[in-house]
Fold each of these.
Amino acid sequence: MKYICLAYHDKQGLETKSDTERNGVIDECFAYSDVLRRNGHLVGGEPKNLRREHNVVSQEEWIAARKELLKKEKESTRLRDQLSAERRKLPWVKVAKNYVFDAPGGKVTLADLFGGSSQLVIYHFMFGPDWQEACPSCSFVSDHIDGALAHLAARDVTMVMVSRAPLARHNWW
């Protein structure tokens, strides 16, 4: 089961507490969310500063601030596009090692994983040999990747997932 934690507080009641008491309440909330996160039960959460109010402005002020932020977002996009282009221009390295993987049909080589395509995407599905369960985010991706596979295949791309866990541990999916 997954949880989203919502915390409400009585601002007036919190302000009547001492700093030590107030910090104790806040620390208790964060400690509980840490327990949920460690156990893989937290869908999302964002610590908020309970000691400060959010700035409220007129629509004109918001539009001006938004336009300034938009300039930064556009510059960030241009820089990301430039970095992506530079990454694509990096030289390639010949893979000399003979990688062999366990697959449902037996052993396969790295070359076999291409499955006749000219391109291969390998997703590292984080699931260690001694783990009780796989990474929750990787499991989510695995549950929802099917729709993208046809689009990848149409572009001559094969996608495979690999992990360090023994193949028998994956059969229950």
Note: Residues 59-88 form the longest helix (30 residues).
Amino acid sequence: MAALEILVVTTRQSRHWIVPKGWPIKRLTPSKSAAREAFEEAGVRGKIGARAIGNFTYKKTARQTDAEQNRPQYADPISCPVLAVGAQAYLGDAVSRQLAQVARDVRGAVIPASGHNIALENPAALAQAYLEFFADR
């Protein structure tokens, strides 16, 4: 039996040690989702056990100063056309709803069969969304 190893990486800004994490990805087992996140966040590949050794929860909060700094943007919405792209398994149409608060002309696209990394998971559908958006402009 191989020794247990746990991958930790540092965050870009705060340089805190974290475990790579992410949202579950549709059609992938939890262990395969973990493997994908480890590769996307840290560029590593390895053997992922099928059985979890534990779990944790955390609350990700926006900084109050960020919200206060962005508030003036609501008074002067973005006037150029905006393509808001969400993934079917990650954010979905929430991206277009959020951008509609700060832009006048928002077109939403939810890319099917995609999660955290749309360009790798469904590049053809993403390219089609771009082509349709720019064809109408």
Note: The two ends are 59 Å apart (CA to CA).
